[in-house]
Design brief:
This protein is of the alpha/beta class and about 350 residues long. It folds into 2 domains: about 1-130 and about 315-344, Medium-chain alcohol dehydrogenases, catalytic domain (Quinone Oxidoreductase, Chain A, domain 1); about 150-290, NAD(P)-binding Rossmann-like Domain (Rossmann fold, 3-Layer(aba) Sandwich), CATH 3.40.50. It is built from 9 helices and 16 strands. Helix 4 runs parallel beside helix 5 (about 200-210) and helix 6 runs parallel beside helix 7 (about 245-255). The structure holds nicotinamide-adenine-dinucleotide and zinc ion (2 copies).
Length: about 350
Amino acid sequence: MRAIQLTAPGTLELVDVPTPKPGPGEILLATAAVGACHSDLHILDAPAGVFPTPMTIGHEIAGRVAQLGPGVTGWAEGDTAAVYGIIGCGRCRACLRGLENQCRTVPVGGVGISRDGGLADHVVVPADRLLPLGGLDPVQAAPLTDAGLTPYHAISLSRDALRPGTHAVVIGVGGLGHMAVQILAVTTAVTIIAVDTSDAALRLAKRMGAHHTVQAGPAAVDQIRELTGPAPDGADVVLDFVCVDATLDTARQVVSTGGHLTMVGLGGGTLRIAATVEGPPPVPMETTAVIPFWGTRAELTEVIALGRQGLLRAEVQTFPLTEAVQAYQQLRDGKIHGRAVLVP
Ligand SMILES: NC(=O)c1ccc[n+]([C@@H]2O[C@H](COP(=O)([O-])OP(=O)(O)OC[C@H]3O[C@@H](n4cnc5c(N)ncnc54)[C@H](O)[C@@H]3O)[C@@H](O)[C@H]2O)c1
Ligand SMILES: [Zn+2]
Ligand SMILES: [Zn+2]
């Protein structure tokens, strides 16, 4: 079968590999749609030894059940399913509470991150990682499993702060950010302020339900503050889907006292947090800083429900599997609006 593999650090290649066989408790899925996440670019750029090679990437997966491994029940060939990509140990305190994204035994990883993923004609996954699509189009379902789930989880962590009359700022309206705007729009009554460097992303944000858009840059803090009011007021929740120095600097200057600063992006920026007695603290007092990771299986069922109700729809640009390398280059060049989805 065809697969897009990380063959060495910095190298993605379309290769031909044997179709894997499902072991006990596993399912072979014929992939129907796989989202291209910016994290795949971070994986591609990582130094040797961080990720296994060769490894098929792709962690936003929807497909059709092609073969059941020994002992698997409850699924039949042809069923359509989305893949919950995290594989926790299933036994630690976090996993037992359903928080596999906080597993205390297995390091951060999952399908397409620490083992072969979905950018191939087929992928093998543990049967309990599959969730039924219930008629949802796989091209829509694939982005829900990460671009939808990650912001849904991040927003859920701040549910209590997202009260009517408050402001939420979304920085970076790409694959995850455009879903965040929609999730805020359909599950809260807050005023949504979207921030991006790209005009196209800001136009997308408006269509997705943002009330205000602000061009990222030196004037952004003042423009956001005009909308939220001066410190110690501000945005009750700031979601940063980029997390480079510049965006973290904006985030800390617009979050309110007692607000939530949620850092989803893996941009590697630095945020100075600790307060001193000599002047205003770099981050307002009583702020909660959160670094969310992906989401839970239970949350993914809720995200899929939003998708089935037509309340959450990814803006997608589709590509054939053979053009995956070009699709990732377009993502790197900022030419993808919403999510690129590969259709094997
Ligand atoms: N924490 C998690 O669990 C998790 C899960 C998935 C992805 N991520 C990370 O989230 C980030 C976003 O992923 P994505 O797939 O949505 O990426 P994307 O490339 O689709 O979107 C990024 C957006 O940020 C904008 N942007 C870039 N620099 C900016 C700046 N300085 N100021 C304002 N906007 C800027 C871009 O124009 C683009 O619209 C990545 O770092 C990814 O690795 C984290
Ligand atoms: Zn991802
Ligand atoms: Zn665990």
